[in-house]
Amino acid sequence: MNMKYLIVVGALVSHFAIADEAVEANPITENGVVKIEWQEPDNYRDIKTSNDIQSRFETRFFETMTKNINKQAEKTLAPNQTLVMQVTDVDLAGDMRPTFGATSGDLRVVKDLYPPRMNFSYQILEGETVVIAGDEKLRDMSFMQRLNRLNNDRPFTSETIMMQDWLKRTIAPQIEALQAN
């Protein structure tokens, strides 16, 4: 009887230790010309997973977004420039809804009503010199129309498109103006 009790307690403790695995306080991801500090992700509006370990999901989101932002940043920035960001809030497209036991996790419902959002400050550096800086509060209200046109089999498509559009519409013209002077 005592041995059964120890085995059950051991299994529960190890399960909760894995489930409570935490992401470092302010993780930093880098890829190519992009470096992002994800500030206090526990306080983000919505970066919840439906069926994965939360810390693993967050790490995958941070790395995927950094890689995807880098793809557009390499096309947008001048050869000697880098993009440094400090993300302060994320709200993934959609909204988490409980399934009340019908499935093992909650369900993300994606509708026009729940657009992706991201708040961050940024700097474009040339070497060590800041050439452009600012703060952004992005929200893509037309993300559903874009999803209907594009291949939506990649993770975090709505958030990636929002960031690519920001680089094209906001950063590219500023860089062009800098190069013209």
Would you spell out the secondary-structure blueprint of this structure?
Elements: H1 2-19, E1 28-31, E2 34-38, H2 54-76, E3 81-91, E4 95-97, E5 107-109, E6 117-126, E7 129-139, H3 143-149, H4 157-180
Parallel strand pairs: 2-3
Antiparallel strand pairs: 1-2, 3-6, 4-5, 6-7
Helix pairs in contact: 2-4, 3-4
Radius of gyration: 20 Å
Oligomer: single chain
* Beta content: 25-35%
- How would you sum up the global shape? globular
Number of contiguous helices: 4
Average pLDDT reading: 84
Largest sheet: 5 strands, mixed
Helix and strand content put the structural class at alpha+beta
Number of domains: 1
- What is the rounded distance between the termini? 81 Å
Enumerate the strands of the largest sheet in spatial order, edge to edge or round the barrel.
1-2-3-6-7
Number of strands: 7
Helix content: 25-40%
- The helix/strand order is HEEHEEEEEHH
Low-pLDDT windows of residues? 6-21
Keywords: Signal
Signal peptide: 1-19
Organism: Shewanella gaetbuli
Protein name: DUF3016 domain-containing protein
